[in-house]
Design a protein that fits this description.
By secondary structure, the chain is mainly alpha-helical. It contains 11 helices and 10 strands. The strands form 5 sheets. Strands 1-2 form a two-stranded parallel ribbon. Strands 3-5 form a two-stranded antiparallel sheet. Strand 1, helix 2 and strand 2 form a beta-alpha-beta unit. Helix 3 runs antiparallel to helix 4.
């Protein structure tokens, strides 16, 4: 089956399920009795309570159902456990076990749409543009996104709002930011948590993981947390996968991004002072000049205590008495340390 896929298509899932059953039957595998619509049960945010109630009722009668849903729909707070079907042998894993059991397995795909998506065929609403700008500014503030790229993304967002349906030119840069990685891992933790709510389970729990998850995310970040056995197993597999694929860290790049961000803040302060030249602004200018002359450098402790100074200083890659740099656009575009 070869087909160019642009959007999610439930009918394509049905076709794959049919082909899998055909192959299994030809291979002489024993198949369970066919369940009513068991391959395409979708849990959506809209009408969730009714759909979830129907799902649990059918599962409690012994049906085998393949459920499609998103990370947001079955996120934190949602209960997917159901009453144990008659004559089903289960394992009691703790003393809190009652009459309900967890799902038999889960497939985890690499999370998408972690940030407002501009890569679409129609312009996005104004509220999503505002949300995207906050997300973009947050990443720049943390030094995870350079000022050049961040402003370019904001420009694309406004272009999309005005009807220019261009696509993200450097979308992968956003999804490589550590904050989005952490957000993705949070979604994965919550998803696996949905099948770890009770003390009754099948003898075997099947957890299928998209290889992109191991390729993109460092799950060892959460290994010191209290994890359920299912996610603990995923973390161990991830560590083994990454053992021979380690990349050297590049802290200098992040420091350059932070320096560039601080430089822009400083330039904004200076421009604001020049636009409203008064006795107060003149005094502010003098204070700023005196500060830079008296304290060309700060200790880490002083830097952290004096929050208002964060826009006037930047960290060097290592302790040193001097540094060299070059800049572009009168300090408004890029700084190279």
């Amino acid at each position: 089956m070869h087909r160019k896929i642009k959007n999610f298509d439930i009918n394509l899932i049905k076709e794959f399920a049919t082909e899998i059953l055909k192959e299994a039957k030809m291979a002489g595998k024993k198949l369970l009795p066919k369940s009513r619509g068991g391959f395409d049960f979708c849990l959506r945010t809209e009408g969730y309570e009714q759909s979830n109630a129907e799902l649990k009722e059918r599962l409690s009668k012994g049906e085998k159902i393949f459920v499609l849903s998103s990370y947001n729909t079955i996120g934190v707070g949602q209960n997917l456990q159901y009453k144990v079907p008659e004559n089903l042998e289960v394992v009691k894993v703790n003393r809190y076990a009652q009459e309900e059991k967890d799902f038999d397995g889960i497939y985890l795909e690499a999370p998408t749409h972690l940030i407002v998506n501009l890569d679409m065929n129609n312009s996005i609403p104004e509220k999503d543009v505002v949300k995207f700008i906050f997300q973009d500014e947050f990443l720049m503030e943390r030094g995870e996104l350079s000022r050049i790229d961040g402003l370019a993304f904001i420009k694309e967002a406004f272009g999309n709002l005005s009807g220019g349906l261009g696509r993200f030119s450097k979308k992968n840069i956003l999804y490589d930011c550590p904050s989005l990685h952490n957000y993705a891992i949070k979604n994965l933790l919550q998803a696996v948590g949905r099948i770890c709510r009770t003390g009754l389970k099948n003898k075997e729990i099947h957890v299928y993981v998209d290889e992109d998850i191991f390729r993109k995310y460092d799950l060892s970040k959460v290994e010191k947390r209290r994890l359920n056995p299912e996610f603990r197993a995923i973390v161990e597999l991830s560590k083994a996968y990454k053992e021979d694929r380690k990349k050297p860290e590049n802290p200098v790049q992040r420091l350059e991004n932070l320096a560039n961000h601080s430089s822009l803040k400083s330039m904004q302060i200076i421009h604001d002072l020049k636009r409203r030249w008064s006795e107060n602004s003149i005094q502010d200018w003098k204070d700023l000049r005196a500060l830079s002359l008296k304290k060309p450098t700060l200790s880490e402790e002083e830097f952290l205590k004096q929050g208002y100074l964060s826009g006037l200083y930047f960290r060097a890659p290592e302790k040193r008495a001097s540094y060299s740099y070059k800049q572009e656009g009168d300090y408004s575009k890029k700084i190279f340390l």
